[in-house]
Amino acid sequence: MAIERTFSIIKPDATKRNLTGAVNAIIEGAGLRIVAQKRIRMTREQAETFYAVHKERPFFGELVDFMISEPVVVQVLQGENAIARYREVMGATNPANAAPGTIRKEHALSVGENSVHGSDAPETAAIEIAQFFAGNEIVG
Ligand code: DAT
Ligand code: MG
After folding, report:
1. Ligand 1: residues within 6 Å at CB?
2. Which residues fall within 8 angstroms of residue 25, CB to CB, at 6 or more apart?
3. Does 15 appear as a known binding residue?
């Protein structure tokens, strides 16, 4: 497997509870390197663009409101098979279904307030990284 980059967000429920370090410890413990990171307050426009694929879903409004409710930490993670690897480390979308040791099992509150985002494919990873980072902000 090749070295890949994936896009991660530490979501408002986690930043609010001071869990940025705890989440990063799980990420780094899994062998993924944090090659870019910044704490931002997402605008409504950024959140709507980011989750545009879900705009017809009943939870879209709630999801956007949640993502702008508190600061988030956006990151680029790099490593062997990083996209699939980070999805494993995150755990299932609904923390009730997440495996022990995953970020969502250990820290998420609900299917909506589920602590982290991770890209689901190489194409989406590239688009998501470019939405939040300039090339010179990523230091591999
Ligand atoms: P994931 O974040 O695991 O990639 P997704 O892409 O299906 O999951 O959904 C994006 C986010 O939308 C998810 O992290 C939380 C929210 N969401 C998904 N399904 C939901 C539901 N049934 N109720 C409330 N929020 C939901
Ligand atoms: Mg998704």
Report:
1. 54, 59, 63, 93, 111-112, 114, 117, 120
2. none
3. no
Residue 109 phi/psi, 5-degree rounding, is: -100, -30
Question: What are 124's two structure tokens?
Answer: 């989406």
pTM above 0.95, yes or no: yes
Give the residue numbers marked as catalytic. Answer: 117
- Distance separating alpha carbons of residues 62 and 75, to the nearest angstrom: 23
Tens of pLDDT, residues 105-130: 999 999 999 999 999 999 999 999 99
| Buried-state track 44-67, b at ≥16 Cβ within 10 A, e below 16 | eebbbebbeeeeeeeebeebbebb
What's the gap in Å between 129 CA and the centre of ligand 2?
A: 14
Q: How far is the CA of 93 from the centre of ligand 1 (A)?
A: 6
- Is 17 marked as binding a ligand? no
- Supply the ipTM of this predicted assembly: 0.98
Measured CA to CA in angstroms, residue 66 lies from 14, 36, 60, 106 at distances of 12, 23, 10, 20
Mutate to test the pocket of ligand 1, among 64, 89, 111 (most ligand atoms within 8 A of CB): 111
In this structure, the number of other CB atoms found within 10 A of the CB of residue 79 comes to 19
4 CA to centre of ligand 1 in angstroms: 23
